[in-house]
Specification:
The complex is a heterodimer of chains A (112) and B (116). Chain A is an all-beta fold and 112 residues long. Chain A is 0% helix and 56% strand. The chains are: A mainly beta (112), B mainly beta (116).
């Protein structure tokens, strides 16, 4: 069965701290895709990244970085030097076997 | 701006009423998805259309229905509304093929429905 687990319901850090959001997935497929989305307080859902199962290279985009490890079925998201504007709910999702499975989301609070 | 347009952005109505939410996908996207997000909840998948045809159904109530028109815009109809239907309803589009594909979803800003 496909499943995405975001065990951290809520994380609160002080601005400028680094923070990592965990995402663990389950699938028996060899081809699959992983995504991260951001939902700020304003409510819209913003696509951040897609990673396919054949590409385990980590990716960095400014203060954001993603660590994909097939060995542990994890696709973690790190924000370096966090800012108040990073406060949002972050969702991890898995596309596998024609289904799109969403994690429950992690609420990230960045305190000034 | 994701390129996905949803109207209305806000809607307040009474129990028992019927509303229609509208979605225009990104240019070229054939797939449209509808999601419901209740307060402090995750995303609940409702339904997926591809090029006018229903492809997958999630936890969509019988009181809810949707369709995708030849111009690819989609409408979600919610009838006999209950208090518990108050939620943020998202539409998303994707370049995904009929079988799902690889494409990420691009979401509209959502339609916030309040049922009083």
């Amino acid at each position: 069965a496909q499943k995405v687990t975001q065990a951290q319901t809520e994380i609160s850090v002080v601005e400028k701290e680094d923070v990592t959001l965990d995402c663990v997935y389950e699938t028996r497929d060899t081809t699959y895709y992983l995504f991260w989305y951001k939902q700020p307080p304003s409510g819209e859902l913003v696509f951040l990244i897609r990673r396919n199962s054949f590409d385990e290279q980590n990716e960095i985009s400014g203060r954001y970085s993603w660590n994909f490890q097939k060995s542990t079925s994890s696709f973690n998201f790190t924000i370096t030097a966090s800012q108040v504007v990073d406060s949002a709910v972050y969702f991890c999702a898995l596309r596998s076997n024609y289904q799109l499975i969403w994690g429950a989301g992690t609420k990230l609070i960045i305190k000034p | 701006d994701s390129g996905v347009t949803q109207t209305p952005k806000h809607l307040i109505t009474a129990t028992g009423q019927r509303v229609t939410l509208r979605c225009s996908p990104r240019s070229g996207d054939l797939s449209v998805y509808w999601y419901q997000q209740s307060l402090d909840q995750g995303l609940q998948f409702l339904i997926h259309y591809y090029n006018g045809e229903e492809r997958a159904k999630g936890n969509i109530l019988e009181r809810f229905s949707a369709q995708q028109f030849p111009d690819l815009h989609s409408e979600l109809n919610l009838s006999s509304l209950e208090l518990g239907d108050s939620a943020l309803y998202f539409c998303a589009s994707s370049v995904a093929t009929s079988s799902g594909g690889t494409g990420e979803l691009f979401f509209g800003e959502g339609s916030r429905l309040t049922v009083l």
